[in-house]
Every structure is written in C-alpha cells, then in structure tokens.
Amino acid sequence: MLPPELEQKLLEHANYFPRREQAILLCLHEVQDYYGNIPPFALERVAQILGLPLNHVENVVSFYDMFDRGEPARHRIRVCVSIVCNLMNKQRLLDAIRKHLGIGVGEVTKDGRFKLIAVQCLGACSEAPVFMVDNDTYKFESEEKLYEILSKYT
C-alpha cells in the first residue's frame, strides 16, 4: 500500500499519457524520490497502476542505473565511471568522497545521509570528471569544492 499522496502522483502520471505504460519512468522516479530507493511492494503497485506485468517493471529498474533497489539514503551521489571520466581521473573524485564520507561505491553513510553509486554516463563529458547529488550535476574541481557542495545537502 502506497501513501495516498504518492498514489495520486502515480495516477496523474499514468493518466497523462495516451498509453499508461509510457509513464513508467516518471512513476519510478516518484517512488524513488519518496522512499530513497524502490522497494518491492512499490514495484508491484506501479505495475498494477500501469497495467504492466511485474517482471516488465523490474526489468526497467534493473536496466537503468538511476534506479536503486538497495539500502536507501536521503541523497544519492552518482559518480560517472565511463571512459572519459576515467581518463580525466575520476579516481581522485572517488578517493575524495571516500576520504570525506568514509564510504565506497554501493555504501551508505552511517547517518543515512549519502549513498555512493557508480554509473556509466551522466552525459556531461565536457565537464569530466562529474558527479551528481540527487538531480544536480557538478564538475569535480577539488576536494575543498566537493566538501562545500556536499555540505549543502543536510
């Protein structure tokens, strides 16, 4: 059972499109924004609302690395690990995050504030190496700048 306000948003997305299944990504984003991840019971409800088989919704979640079925956190830090960011020293970025937050890829800080996720592309190659905190994209410039950015997400 989803909270009424989340259920209402999902129904609004589903009814906006000519075919309900076209709302799948919007619905999954709403669920993740609400819970911090995508819990199994929510997958079932999204499938029901959109009139899709559960395995279809599960496959969409598995395909896109923007969706997270693991341990939730208030904020997700996504670090691009594609070839361009790799060549532009994404390892310095990962090391700075590990040093500052004490977590590695796939881990959540003890206070549940941040989760670090490696992704294949963030679509900002000209700014490499890049990372996102929730929906905000940043160029990694220095450890100090990284700490300043992360301090905004309290």
TrEMBL record:
Its cofactor is [2Fe-2S] cluster. GO terms for molecular function: 2 iron, 2 sulfur cluster binding; metal ion binding; NADH dehydrogenase activity. The keyword Iron-sulfur applies. It comes from the Bacteria. [2Fe-2S] cluster binds at residues 80, 85, 121, 125. It holds the Pfam family 2Fe-2S_thioredx. Keywords: 2Fe-2S, Iron, Iron-sulfur, Metal-binding. The keyword Metal-binding applies. Gene3D superfamilies: Glutaredoxin, NADH-quinone oxidoreductase subunit E. PROSITE patterns: COMPLEX1_24K. Binds 1 [2Fe-2S] cluster. PANTHER family: NADH DEHYDROGENASE [UBIQUINONE] FLAVOPROTEIN 2, MITOCHONDRIAL (PTHR10371:SF3), NADH DEHYDROGENASE UBIQUINONE FLAVOPROTEIN 2, MITOCHONDRIAL (PTHR10371). Belongs to the complex I 24 kDa subunit family. This is NADH-quinone oxidoreductase subunit E. The lineage of its organism: Bacteria, Pseudomonadati, Aquificota, Aquificia, Aquificales.
